[in-house]
Batch of 3 targets.
Target 1
Amino acid sequence: MLSAFARAFQTPDLRKKLLFTLGIMVLFRLGSHVPVPGVDFQAVHACIKETKNNGLFGLVNLFSGGALLQLTIFALGIMPYITASIILQLLTVVIPRLEALKKEGQAGTAKITQYTRYLTIALAVLQGTGIVATASSGALFSGCVYANQIVPDTGVFRIAVMVLTMTAGTTVIMWLGELITDRGIGNGMSLLIFTSIAAQFPTSMWAIKQSGTIGGGWVEFLSVIAIGVIVVMLVIFVEQAQRRIPVQYAKRMIGRRAFGGTSTYIPLKVNQAGVIPVIFASSLLYIPALVVQLTNSQAGWAVWINQHFVRGDHPIYMATYFLLIVFFAFFYVAISFNPEEVADNMKKYGGFIPGIRAGRPTAEYLNYVLTRITWPGSLYLGLIALIPMIALVAFGQQTNFPFGGTSVLIVVGVGLETVKQIESQLQQRNYEGFLR
């Protein structure tokens, strides 16, 4: 990987792309520290130091690089865009018009991208209003004595300016991500998420060292690094793992020329769903605690939720989280990969799997293989997601534990894809062909 980056910096056009990408990432991090107008920044910092458990908003805070709890102009981060993309991807299966657009190629993809932008702005307004209302009521930092002083002026005009600023920040982030995709290296949105998560690693690691009790905290610090190396190796191994189903295309005679007769394969990844099941499960588990916090209820059901679904170290919470991840892994694979459509396309172009008849038997075989490899993929996702909760029991460091859950899956996944793109571009520029 390091050699690929070194060779990329030696290539002039790739060096420009890498420097442009790094510049956008630096600009993104600078915007994550500019406060929204109307926020008492000193009260925010006092509440961040006073309250240690911010798990309710942890997912959004993770994708914003810590900007959410600091109420900066990039507080919403890339989360509205991720939500809009997932919603449209799910609606593609339900709405025939979106499915037709998806099949139209580049023109249809451009229209779906435009719909995603509109939905992102609408979700940013909705989420920004919720965050500002939560901060104004003091519920953003429950238990902090300065919570009610975060937004001194709760007038309609001031609240509207704050929501508009956060929405504009999300729009700028979306624009920066598209700039990276067009003029830089890799997928822009993925790299901005990577930047947000990776920016919190040094702070989290140092917090583990400071809170440690053995050898001045260095034993805990080195133990977490060792666990992190093992987890990253496991994630790389599973993310690269795939089942290759061989496909043979029969020869076709068109006039006097023969076409086809080639062999290829269908790559089915073990983790076909990626990080989406973890995001779905985390979001769903936040809903009960959010309802209790917003209603401020003291009923029996509210007390039960506070006891079992607020902190991640409870066995019921961990078991529910694990089962939801397994369920959403199968659910997302079922809607994102259609064995019948793949089988029909293979039959249309004269392709077949050796030993399997074309048509319905091929679809049944693909569905059988996909179900078999989704089981280890879903169990792997569940175990990786439980690492921060196990760390909470072992080290008391769920908030500061960086190597686990959504963070390590995204960081490793984006890193692998970016390195692959750099290597492919290097190969295109250095390809000499058969004749010299």
Note: The first helix runs from residue 2 to 10.
Target 2
Amino acid sequence: MEPNEPVVDMNLGDEIQTREELATFVRGLREEFLRQGQEWENADLDTFLEALAAWIDDAEGSYRDFGKELPREGDWTFFAQSLRAATMYE
């Protein structure tokens, strides 16, 4: 991350509004992985991608748990939440 680049603390339920915020979020995930990736449930690419696909399949229920409706067309927030969920989704 660049020294002046804002940090997006993205947890399920938060929103990403722009492509730039999404890029910042993905960089933040990378930084988190470098610091504490060994603590992630899915700490290798194989299990991460499998969890990502599984969470996308089941996302409607996750959104419902947060009192939200899954966006019909998808959006930047959905993608960021999918990536976040893949760090812990089984």
Note: Residues 45-65 form the longest helix (21 residues).
Target 3
Amino acid sequence: MIKVVRGNPTPEELAAALAVVQARAAASGTAAPGPAAPRPAWSDPSRVAAHRLPQPGPSAWGRTYWPS
């Protein structure tokens, strides 16, 4: 929210000031947040659970890791 503390700006002056503030916010990345980005597939736990259980063997322990 922007509040005029001093003076009596015309509607055109106020619109110009708000346009500058919005342009700076958009350039710095602090504009209103949009929808959340989708979660990457590599971190989805169901990706690991969808596969078969590892076969016994010397490297089986490495395939039992569950990402958090």
Note: The longest helix spans residues 11-28.
